[in-house]
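Appendix B, Record 12. Input sequence as logged:
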Amino acid sequence: MKFREIFIISSVIIVGLVIAVGSFWPSAWWSMILFGPLILIGYTDFLQRKHSVRRNFPLIGNIRYLLEAIRPEIMQYFVETDTEGRPINRLRRSLIYQRAKNVNDTTPFGTQKDVYKTGYEWMTHSIYAKKANHEDEHKRVIIGGKDCKKPYAASLLNISAMSFGALSKNAIMALNKGAKMGGFAQNTGEGGISSYHQEYGGDLIWQIGTGYFGCRNEDGTFCEEKFKEKAHLEQVKMIEIKISQGAKPGHGGILPASKNTSEIAHIRGVKPATDVLSPPAHSAFLNPEELLQYIQKLRELSGGKPIGFKLCIGKKEEFVAICQTMVSTNIKPDFITIDGGEGGTGAAPVEFSNTLGMPLRDGLSFAYDTLCGFDLKKDIKLMASGKIISGFDIARAMALGADLCYSARAMMMSLGCIQALRCNNNTCPVGVATQDPSLIRGLNVEEKSKRVASYHDQTLHSFIELIAASGIDTPSEIRRSHIYRRVTMEKVKKYDELFPYVENGSLIQNNVVLEKYSPGIN
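Logged structural output:
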């Protein structure tokens, strides 16, 4: 029995007892001075649609908002700590909530970081700052190479991969409606395309994982016919092959049996009420050449839509080998998504989350430099994923080589996620990461979709303001020299010193791939 039902039953019992006792002891009616307002508050919480916590936990849910009134970031002290147990990212989470709710996101008393602490980063500004240009074309990038027949004008910020199954149907619908409202794309995650992804017509990036959910044969292998059918949907703007993700690289996706309903099982083509464990690697390709042939096949089957792949950088030589094969075969993806090892997930072995995968800044700069070294970057767009929260995060990623970005956790928080850390046991209190109908109903799609769109709009607005303050006209002009990092108390370095550029085409000479790589690649 859920708390909502417990509250309703308890309130009825209390009122019944007061009426019964009051019939022969009139003083009992005075108890309603206490119980009456509490019951009224509870039913008000139950009936409102704005706040998921209050809707799912009437009366006691108000405690959270009372704590927030004392200090908006107080919940930070219970989650997300560093290796020494100290709370981190207090202001970043608060920033997401403020932008999602379209309230003032400025802060009093200026900088709230220790600017002399190792690791502090900032962006240069110019005394010749530009007037911020918020026109839509400055917030988009065209994805599609020479072999792409249907290029896509993507937003600089999009919803990262989160599957239906990991998230509730209401969460998926709210994200998609928010994407439709804001003109950006939603990555389906490897769980496939559900009716909830299609409910409001928001642009989709269809992710194909190792389980080939939504386009698989009974034996779990890739099915061309099923893929072609879904790839031709108008909503599907791009297709992304998931090779690995930052939160658990080298490990397949996990859908606990408690979340694997008959509906989800039907969408994925698996048995319901069983743990769904995706294979760690693809069966459709086993080497770089087969990967590129697979990309070419998907491009043909989809009618020429942009095709790319996502990975967290592991062994550098494997990514270099893919680039070498691009040069030799002249088959290129339209985009590559680089996920950082700091990426999040609802379920992963602790060792995988904490100790596998190259962090985003290292992986992104390496991928960009390698593509440039093989003279491939001009044909391939780079997407960055891994704790992208603020306008500065976008600017930093673009300085390292990204053309556009994904965000997952920020989009979840704009839905109302409070990081209760219950994603893996189906008891998310705000109805985001659960398949429990009684909890899902607390998430109102209409209200939360507005917050998703608001967060996206205000974050890109901040990003454009930021680059204008740096004297930059367009996002494509951002360079590593614009970002500084304190490496010690006495020493500061620019990003182009920490991540030196590789000369374009330096890894190719007379159309022959060089065996010796530059220092930036080793």
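The longest helix spans residues 445-469.
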